[in-house]
Amino acid sequence: MNEEYKVVDKFIKVERYIQSNRTSHKFTIYRNNYSDLAKEIGDNGFNFISKYFNRYNSRHIIISSRNFEDISKLTGKNYKLLASIEPINNMISINEFFGSINSKLEDGGIFICRFKDQEKVEEKILNSSPFPVNLIRYTIYFIYRRVFPKLSITRKLFFFLTKGKNRSLRRLEVIGRLYACGYELESEYKCDDYTYLLVKKRKIPVFDKYSSYGLLFKMRRIGKGGKEIFVYKLRTMVPFSEYLQDYFIKKNSLAKGGKICNDIRVTPLGKILRKFWIDEIPNFINLLKGEMKLVGVRPISKQYLSLYDEELRNLRKLVRPGIIPPFYADMPETLDEIQQSEKKYIKEYLKKPLSTDLRYLYMAIKNITTKRVLSK
């Protein structure tokens, strides 16, 4: 594996534990046995891969494996195309697998993978049986396949029982993992029960060790003095969606209030957490640590901060971010209005800290209670 690639996923220990106790798996390299490949993935999947795969190019290869360590067995380097047909749902360690593939591809090289989308699986469960049997089956699936892997007290048991197979994966989670591991999405294709993703290598993996698969997680944000802090929150978005922020800003632009338009990264549970402000409760950990205060500018990412003008970026360095931002007092809609709101608050705060925070707190509470403003 590329020495520059160091996996720091907090769940790797669990996955390596399962790997050490795994059942045997088959590592296959498809060279001339393409009839076997077509039987394995079906004609539609085979035709999609065939559009890009050239059997006469030694730097094109198709494999089937569940184990990232198998990738080191490939003798070639700087492949132009590498297709993996084992569903991502069955990978023992997804991020290490993506990282291992990255180390074998040239810059701009193509990686093709496939997976079963969680939404399609759930749709099948709900449509396969009459009510209330379908609801009972869905509830069991939801708890076992979606809740158990996310809780630290049940995660190891889940991986031990399943051997890492048939994970429940959302489309955006898989894409987020790919972006974290240095890829960029080029196209996708849906056929049969699978979604095929074609991505290109753009850089080496930059995986954040503070990324979380669970409900409670830490976000990298910019604090006072321009220093990075880790803001605690309850997850309201699909896991690994933080790596898709640039992608969604470019694709969807910003809506009123400075949020991304039609942000499908927010989960149904996340919408409920935001509606009742439950997702903000862990911010009080940052309050106790002295990294944030009750009222102040919203802690934002480096990517989002780059959208601000230089004056505001400099002003933000002078104050700690807050749990309740001036946004809820002024209710700005456009990015320019948000910047003006924050500039006004910071300048007033630097002159009269206590009275400014009390006034903004009063206005924010009034808007939240009377206008039912959601957590941002």
Give the integer mean of the pLDDT values. Answer: 86
Largest sheet: 6 strands, mixed
Gyration radius from CA atoms, angstroms: 23 Å
Strand line-up in the sheet with most strands: 1-2-3-4-6-5
DSSP strand content: 15-25%
Q: Strand tally, please?
A: 10
Share of helical residues: 40-55%
Uncertain runs with pLDDT below 50, 5 residues or more? 1-23
Task: Give the overall form.
Answer: globular
Helix vs. strand class: alpha/beta
Order of helices and strands: HEHEEHEHHHHEEEEHHHEHHEHHH
- Give the count of helical stretches: 15
Report how far the terminal alpha carbons are from each other.
40 Å
Quick summary:
By secondary structure, this protein is an alpha/beta fold. Helix content is 42%, strand content 16%. The chain contains 15 helices and ten strands.
Report on the architecture of this protein.
- The structure is a single chain.
- Helix 1 (12-20) packs parallel to helix 6 (152-162) and helix 4 packs antiparallel against helix 5 (133-147).
- The protein is built from 15 helices and ten strands.
- Helices cover 42% and strands 16% of the residues.
- It is globular.
- The longest helix is centred in the C-terminal third of the chain and has 19 residues, at 353-371.
- It has a six-stranded mixed β-sheet, with helices on both faces. A two-stranded antiparallel sheet has the order 7-8. It has a two-stranded parallel ribbon with strand order 9-10.
- It is of the alpha/beta class.
- The model is unreliable at 1-23 (pLDDT under 50).
